[in-house]
Amino acid sequence: MSAGHEVAGTPPAKDGAEPPAREGARRRAGAGRWVVFAGRRLVRLVLSLLVLLAATFIMVHLIPGDPVQTALGDQATPQMVAQRRHELGLDLPLPEQFWRYVTGVVTGDFGRSIVTEAPVADLLTTRFPNTLRLAGPAFLLVVLIAMPVGLFTAVRTRGGRGRHVRGWFVNVTGLLNSIPDYVLATVLSLVFVVTIKAFPAAGDEGLSSYVLPVLALVAGPAASLSRIVRVEALKVLDAEYVRAAKARRLPTGLRYWRYVLPNMMTASLTYGTMILAGLIAGTVLVENVFGWPGVGTVISQAVIQKDYPLIQGILLVLGAAVLLLNMVVDVVLGVLDPRSRLGEL
Amino acid sequence: MAALSVGDLMVRYGSVTAVRGVSFDVAAGSVLGLVGESGSGKSTVARALVGLTPATGSMRIDGADLSSRQARRRVQLVFQDSRSSLDPRYTVEQCVAEGLTGVRGRAASARVAELLDLVSLDPAVAGSRPGDLSGGQRQRVAIARALAARPDVVIADEVTASLDVSVQAVVLNLLRRLRAELGLTMIFISHNLAVVEYMCDDLAVMFDGRIVEYGAVGEVIGRPEHPYTRSLLAAVPEIGQRRLLSESDVEASAVTDPASAGGCAYRLRCPIGPAANPEREICVTTEPAATAAHAHHAACHFARELDHPVGPRG
Amino acid sequence: MTAAFRGPRPGRLLSGGVPLLLILLFVFLSVAGPSIWGEAASASNVAEANQSISAAHWMGTDDLGRDILARTLVATRNSLVLAVVATIVGGCVGIGLGLLSAMSRRLGRALGALINVLIAFPALLLAIFFAVLFGIGSVGSVLAVGASFAPGFARITQTLTASVVSKEYVEASRVLGRGPIYRTFRHILPNIAEPVVLYSTIHIGTAVLALSGLSFLGLGVQPPVYDWGRLLNDGLTRIYVTPGVAIAPSIAIVLAGLTFNLAGERLSDLIAGRRSAPSARRSQPRPAEPAPDPAGDGGGALVDVRHLRVTYASADGRVTTPVRDVSFTLAPKERVGIVGESGSGKSLTAAAIAQLIEEPGHVEAERLRFMDADLLTPDDSTRHVLGRNMAMVFQDPGEALNPAIKIGTHLIEPAVIHLRESKPDAKRKALDALRAVAITDPARRFEQHRHELSGGMKQRVGIAIGLMGEARLLIADEPTTALDVTVQRQILRLVDRLGARTEAGLLFISHDIAVVSELCDRIIVMYAGFIVEEAATADLLESPAHPYTSVLLAASPRMGLDKSRPLVAIDGRMPGPDADLPGCYFAARCPRADATCLSDRPPLRELADGRRAACWHPLTEPGDVPTSEGATI
Prior knowledge:
The complex is a heterotrimer of chains A (about 350), B (about 325) and C (about 625).
Chain A: H1 14-27, H2 31-62, H3 67-72, H4 78-88, H5 94-106, H6 120-156, H7 163-178, H8 181-195, H9 207-237, H10 240-247, H11 252-290, H12 296-304, H13 308-336, H14 338-344
Helix pairs in contact in A: 2-13, 6-9, 6-11, 6-13, 7-9, 8-9, 8-11, 9-11, 10-11, 11-12, 11-13, 13-14
Chain B: E1 4-13, E2 16-26, E3 31-35, H1 42-49, E4 56-61, E5 64-65, H2 69-72, E6 75-78, H3 82-85, H4 92-97, H5 105-118, H6 135-148, E7 153-157, H7 165-182, E8 185-189, H8 193-199, E9 202-207, E10 210-216, H9 217-222, H10 227-234, H11 282-285, E11 297-298
Parallel strand pairs in B: 3-8, 3-9, 6-7, 7-8
Antiparallel strand pairs in B: 1-2, 1-4, 4-5, 9-10, 10-11
Helix pairs in contact in B: 5-6, 6-7
Chain C: H1 10-15, H2 17-42, H3 68-103, H4 105-120, H5 123-134, H6 138-165, H7 168-175, H8 180-216, H9 228-237, H10 247-276, E1 303-313, E2 319-330, E3 335-339, H11 346-353, E4 361-364, E5 367-370, E6 373-374, H12 380-389, E7 390-393, H13 407-418, H14 423-436, H15 442-447, H16 455-466, E8 473-477, H17 485-502, E9 505-510, H18 513-519, E10 522-527, E11 530-536, H19 537-542, H20 547-555, H21 595-599, E12 605-608, E13 611-613
Parallel strand pairs in C: 3-9, 3-10, 7-8, 8-9
Antiparallel strand pairs in C: 1-2, 1-4, 1-5, 5-6, 10-11, 11-13, 12-13
Helix pairs in contact in C: 2-3, 2-10, 3-4, 3-6, 3-8, 3-10, 4-6, 5-6, 6-8, 7-8, 8-9, 8-10, 9-10, 13-14, 13-16, 14-16, 16-17
């Protein structure tokens, strides 16, 4: 290594890129930097939402065969189909249909279910909060379990130490990871509902109804997040600044609290978001097992019945929830870790 | 032997200009040294010459333009770190053979053996992987690979920076011998001025994407005209000199960013500039131009004032 | 060392042969299952319908009286084949997208943004979306799961490719005139293959779970075709009547998921193991030979090191010894430099004194003292002595600062903790310290984070932190190696000035003998974990006694070299920490070596007036450079 260490890299190589980074940091100093940061995130969110809208819109048009014909069944006469197409606005030019679709969604009109003819929006407003009531506590639990377990295992398995701990950790988390939530849900209800009769069988009947679904949701994600936390913690524990803190003889507790924890947060939280997103989707399956009145119990039925407005609505709401969540975490990271603001810009 | 001519070379990365109009000629069979701090653009010049970075300006070898991919092969680059410049999955023979064109099979193996011999490597290493070699051996493999393309110009970018000092000399001696035997034209990039003095005929000092001083290596090091060159020379640690702790040519400030456009980019740190002599407003208002008319020149408004020869030995 | 003991590893059995056996079992079931149990699986027997677990039907029967165990075994083929196909579909699409986005700059931005959006969506949501698009059934669900995997594959391929593309060997290939297709197939793909294969293996397991999930929702394969998810779905509807029928498909799904998960784990261990395993032979290093003690008994010394040895035990029981035998003392206010090439053990020597060697590293010494503290048996008071009186500056000025906290916090901490100062006092002192290291606008810098500082400034902060205690010793480990020469000069001047002001001793580690000679009173030269020579700076530079020192001096380029002569050089490399030689470790490269040098280790002997060298044939004449013949090329 040398003073003129100019490793040629990708275009923004060290040679040319250092000055701009520094100039950039100066230019964006203070509150202005925050506005730029938040603005970019917002633009990204809006763009992603548009992609989501376009995808759900195009979905219906890409399906082989005529969805109206399919929905009405074989007995429907061409006139009936044409009539229905006109009612649904499917005979309009595509851009106009998309415009009507977007304005509808923005004003809270998600159309009507083909099967029940009920407004999709009503169904979503009653069911979606139930889904969140499962996913939210599950996520909290995942973080509360994974963070300490991952960090503890990392400390115990540094530098090839604690091979037994590592072995057990890898195998147990591997096993938990391999049990899909719906299988775990099935087994749990088999044991606790059918055999022991400790918990209510299905539906939402107060606090005790939460236990099994949340447990089924938490096990896998907690295992995978604690693996990620361990890997991230190992990286941070080997960082030069942790060594430097040790050289300054800072007490162990302070070292972990101020040097290790904040630095492993960034990556862990990023993965954590993906896990929370996965949890929202995971509820779809678990709700089916426990008959939980969320959107999950509806969607499989809707897909089988080809109830496209309903599918669109559910995918939109779940997708938007995921995107919003990502944005929130990005902003939280921006507060916790100033680097993540600059790094992305 | 071939002469390299570079005119008004510019490299931009987005809104950033890394090289701002660099021109120089390297006479056939001679060695030009490029020195400067990190971020001065010296490696970017090298990357632009071999086509790794898009650039504007003219690049010619013996008058022939260098813009096609085939023509580019006439210029070869040896990278700083042989650990990353050799594919860990290749054998030494495969590494070197990658530089060959139009030769296959036994002829290629024979040529590789020849090249390995040329860089003083035992042909028996042909079957080993880069990871099994020492740093000096790896760097010689990289040199052999560059020579396989039969280049007219070889650019050595910090080739000894990741080597230990006892091995560094092996590689430097090799490059000097190759230059003499093959008549190579070379650009030698280094942060080590002593090495540059030993290896080169001419010397260009770069700062903030420009050449601020240019001349025969003995001239530039013996009679530096630009204050940056002088600070650079004064900062070179040398065995038993204890010069670093002296007060000579200490920069005016520790600012690391170059000054913004409009004046001399070095003015914030310059020991004789406005930071030390506030009346020298011209440094702030006017960008100094290099007077390329004569052999040794510097881009400094007050270059002429440095008439007293202060070399490192002086 | 406890390294020799290797207990049975709990994970060994699971992560070793078992996944392989399970994969073989699954392959066998997929191939032979339908022909062995096909009949039993499809033979309906209404009389035995909806039975629970029994001797005749171990896992019960379904509503047509078909044996669930047989059906589960038969379903292996469908479940696994569909999973493999889905992984291949997702892998091909994703790897293609990832390669494209990493290699083309324009397209890369757009594709990268798309991948970023897609990867945020949970795979199941994507799978449902695609299941609607492709239709319900085997083909639809395979395509749906494959499509939902594509963003993940694209991301990992993109990341890996980006890291390989920026490698210099790919650039070198470009410089040699090779086209993008050659580069992709000869350099990039081979170098990303291992992790991608690993990722795919794990994803076969994930695909089993995902496909079963779709089937479970009724969106996967449709009757009469069935897979594990379908069986589980059927079982679930009867869970309150005959609970046992959900067990067989559950076990199958979990086992398949676990198998591919563990297989991936095992593969990654293999890859990592092969990467890290040097082709070194096992060696049991012999105990250090007793060498005479350094001059004086070390009384009143700031640092007193006798026969220091640092060993590392790797997981498979190999022991390496990067520091073999180091003895020296450092008097108060003295400035000592340790010079050596990379791997000579100089930094680990410093780390051992600073108590920074961590498991699996192990420090042994006859004596290791700092001031009054015995570092071999550290107690609570040792911590405060070290915290207060020893300061350390690291090589990479940026990495040594915590990116998550303010510059100021770094400075305040030692004063508050070790000197029990109040925060306002400590802050005042911190601002003074920043001023002392010539940082302009200290109040603003105090509030900043490390990414807002330049390299030179970060190193100044590193030194300022050292000023916050009552340092009696500053250990500087290659503090200027990463910096430009003009910045290096500033830092060295700073170290010199502050050293004079605080009267602290200095232990300066560097590979550059010129830098060390600028600052230090005494120089220690290390080679292969040994001190080979130690002398006052002027003596060492004037008349080196050890041939290595002499070569080091002669090979260091200096201004005004005679350009008509080749440089002094010695080829070869230093014996690594795993080497175990009976004689002198430099002998193989030494022009003066004879048979004695190869068979007997030279002790570090006192030659004259406080200079020591470990050589059987020390140089006596000044300027007696042991080179020229055979050593240069």
